[in-house]
Queue: 2 jobs
Job 1
Amino acid sequence: MTGLLRIALLWIVVVVSALAVAFVSHLCREKYSQLTAMEREANQLQVDYGKYLLEQSAWGSLQRIENMAANNLQMRSPQPEEILMIKRQ
Amino acid sequence: MAKKSLQTVIPRWRYYFVMFALVSLPIVVLAKIAQLQIMPDEEHGVDFLQTQGDARAIRQEAIPAYRGLITDRNGEPLAVSTPVTTLIANPQHIKQFAKPQQIIQLAQALNISEAQLKARLKRYRNKSFMHLARQLPAAEAEAIISLQIPGVSGRQEYKRFYPAGEVTAQLVGFTDINDDGQEGMELAYNAWLTGEPGAKKVVKDLAGRVIKDIALVKPAHAGDSLRLSIDLRVQYAAYRALKASVQKHQAKSGSVVVLDVNTGEVLAMANQPSFNPNDRSNLQAGAVRNRAITDMMEPGSTVKPFTILAALESGKFQPDTLIDTNPGYLKVSYKTFVDPSNYGVLDLAGVLQKSSQVGTTKLALALNPDSTRQVFERMGFGEPVGSGFPGETLGNLPGHRNWDPVTQATFAFGYGLSVSSLQLARAYAVLANNGYRKEVSLVAIDAQPEGVKVIDAEMVKTVRNMLQAASSDKGTGKRAMIDGYSVGGKTGTLHKVKAGGGYDENRYMSAFAGLSPIENPRLVTIVVIDEPRDGDYFGGLVAAPVFSEVTGNALRLLQVTPDQLDTNRTVASLLRASKKRGDS
């Protein structure tokens, strides 16, 4: 190949690689913004999980259940005389 | 006249000189550009200038790490981190860019007076960072950030909440405002629970607000979660019973420890007085101590089973050896040991059942004093429990070169040494495990440890049966009995030490140490009530009922098969009884 052709080819290759660099960094930024969006979502889900966990412990707290059983439902623990234990034969 | 054409010839050198000048000047400019953009150099090169440029806009932000969850053995949450927002400000930015009415707005939003806010900003005027309000709920913080006051931004942090509240407060502990463990398991396992914060690069504008995230430098690692050995239901039962008893007897404090005999795991560890870890504004110092681990006490009569073991081991005594405790008191050197009444002639089981001082003294004096101490040592008194809990006490098991008889005697019934509740529980677990001593764990373990054999199994079984008698109808611990389960345990009514030496006549500690069921023990429970002040102070009256309630509930919750069924009860008899009571 003549010198001129070689130079032209080199020039084309350099331009193409420069465009490729621009394209890849664009993809990279796109992916990173997707990542931050998902991270934000994951964070929010963690917040919700923590809130639900606390809510469940509050509703299901042993003190509350005992109070409700004793006061609202008039339940009580059976006395020893009221308990009959049956052995499985 | 002829015109001569003038042909001015430019000397070649002038041409080349001008050309050279015209060409070289741009090259000089290009060279300088190249030096700034491409050539690396400390002071003026490309790295330096680019770094400076970035420094004007790009900052690194820390990503906070999620602190690990603390749960009980069944996964019930005991400590949960929730995200909160902390408002931070750059005082210099505020000084430069904020308008006066924005500062008024900010003071209103923060619920402080304008003068207060101005004073705070003045104090930090030379710094570039200050906290405005810490750990606000996200919604509140959002409202303040949306005011768009230059220099004010939000940072995400985590705040700990404790769903179980006062029930597990001393064991779980708490963290400070920077999410570092301060007390309890939060402190002991702080490294395990703390994650690793990450870092990310962000672009900030002139006012300090984050415009966008550029790159992740490193991701944040969440901390690992911690599964404790306690069962929240058993813990709640223990706490409730302890609280009721401490209030009823107007005691100063109390603690309950429930140990799973097979694995050595602590199923419950409750203390009074307690506190609310979610609101520590009115914290009293004594409420934070986990007394079961950190407080020492003289064990008193609760170590008598181990003295009996020492007696059996020496070979000088058999279970049916008779000891004469007439006339109900015994003078040793300068001290007289008195029984509440004259029990006459007792066998070893009787000495334990009546908790006779005279009987125990006679046993102790007949033995080699070091052998009693050695048995205590093998049971783990004076040795670390290895729980990893901060402030765990070793207790004290003193050795003497020359034992004087009074010390020998008092040592045998538990005065002159000090132990913690947890050490006492570990020692009773040896009685429960047929002579094997297993290590105690505050963290859930899945395997069943082997343990180390420290005493003969047959002797231990004999002593267990003696303990059953001690808490039967004829023993001092009869209020410890549980319906449906066989129980064995020892009461302790201990004098407290007076300031200046000697024992106080009017201040006591009530204790009960026991295990259940007798044949294949599953649980060991130690109850200690400190300074009951309403008149009752015997261990059998104050501590034994707590034992009965706590251990009974624990056995039922763990679905242990009852071994003492009342065969007189039938469905018919139950119906008759309920009709008599008038139930529908």
Job 2
Amino acid sequence: MPRIQTRCLGEVEYSPEAVYTFPIGIPGFENEHAFVFLERPRSHPLMFMQSLATPELCLILMPILAADRHYKLHLTEEDLEALQLPARKQPRIGKDILCAVVVCAGGQDRPDPTANLLAPIVVNLKQQIGIQVIQTKVNYSYRHPLIARNRHEELALCS
Amino acid sequence: MLVMRRRAGESFLIGEAVEIEVLEICGTRVKLGIVAPDSILIQRKESKLTRDENIIAARSVGQQNISALLDQVAHRPEGTPVKSLTEEPLLTGESNSRDLMKKH
């Protein structure tokens, strides 16, 4: 069983069958073509999208419906073709495809965690091919706050 | 913001070297043709936003930030339990560290 160094979880073993191919990479990381998706029970529902080639590259993902339970995914014909999915048919999330958003964990660049709802990572579970889909028909935020603002206000009131 | 009206077949220039032509208008969509030097990167705005977000997100992945994120997101008290979106295991094969990966 091959092993990789990961950004968050130390060294892990993985099965070659669990490798997902991103033929054109993702924006900003166009040369990264192979990823594995790692989960930890404690981190549920977050997932770690770890690059095979670059140990330092790991993105935190969240299932799209966890970020927005009413999310409407629309794949264009080009998206369907890139994912090797049947034409003119929207795939079912969770059955045909994995659909998850990239989470910015917060930190110096940005204090509160956000998710990019504009461009979810979509993976064909059968063919194990993935792309980052940029949604053009709908107006989703690329910096969707993951913590409700009113919670902050409550906290401010309490303090 | 400069606003300019153009019909299909008409074009305009940005500086000396960039020409943008309105090729076709169909409903709410407009097809543009762009002539520009190779040194000028042309990309959809959403692609640029997503690229920048991906880079910031990758940079944000540190142990400390993850712990904070887990406290805020994974175990948020008001959140309803979230079903995993995959019904098939994402990872097959066993791991040495058992708590690392969970099978569905």
